[in-house]
């Protein structure tokens, strides 16, 4: 992000664990959730209360929100996929 002159509004340290409730809240305030797990990318359209499938996809095996997670407008991106980051950040 630094290389492109972008600055995050908030950085949450990895030591602060965010669980199902926080993932649900993030998804509920989004219209689109993109989840990258390895090379697999899943995209969800969210209208109102997010389904358990959306929230489950956002969580890692320990039940915590996967990192990195970023919110850009009404889009939430969970996990890292360079193509998705470039698309969402319009790079």
Would you write up a description of this structure?
This protein is α+β, with helices and mostly antiparallel strands. It has one domain. 26% of the residues lie in helices and 22% in strands. The protein is built from three helices and four strands. A four-stranded mixed sheet has the order 2-1-4-3, sandwiched between helices. β1 and β2 form a beta hairpin. α1 crosses α2. The protein is globular and about 35 Å long. The model has no long low-confidence stretch (mean pLDDT 89).
Write a brief structural summary:
The chain contains three helices and four strands. Helix 1 crosses helix 2. The chain has helices spanning 20-28, 52-58, 82-89; strands at 32-37, 40-45, 69-72, 75-78.
Features:
91 residues, alpha+beta, four-stranded mixed sheet, 26% helix
Helix and strand topology:
Layout lengths: L19 H9 L3 E6 L2 E6 L6 H7 L10 E4 L2 E4 L3 H8 L2
Parallel strand pairs: 1-4
Antiparallel strand pairs: 1-2, 3-4
* Estimated helix fraction: 25-40%
User: How far is the first residue's CA from the last residue's CA?
Assistant: 10 Å
- Residue fraction in strands: 15-25%
Roughly what is the average pLDDT, rounded to an integer? 89
Count of discrete domains: 1
Rg from Cα: 13 Å
* Shape label: globular
What is the string of SSEs from the N terminus onward?
A: HEEHEEH
Runs in which pLDDT lies below 50 for 5 or more consecutive residues are none
Structural class, by secondary structure, is alpha+beta
Largest beta sheet: what is the strand line-up? 2-1-4-3
| Biggest sheet architecture | 4 strands, mixed
How many beta-strand runs?
A: 4
Determine the number of helices (DSSP H or I, runs of at least 4 residues). 3
């Amino acid at each position: 992000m630094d290389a492109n002159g972008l600055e995050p509004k908030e950085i949450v340290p990895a030591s602060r664990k965010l669980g199902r409730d926080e993932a649900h809240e993030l998804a509920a305030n989004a219209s689109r959730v993109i989840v990258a797990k390895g090379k697999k990318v899943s995209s969800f359209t969210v209208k109102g209360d997010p389904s358990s499938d959306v929230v489950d996809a956002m969580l890692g095996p320990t039940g915590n929100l996967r990192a990195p997670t970023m919110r850009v407008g009404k889009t939430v991106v969970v996990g890292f996929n360079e193509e998705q980051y470039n698309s969402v950040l319009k790079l």
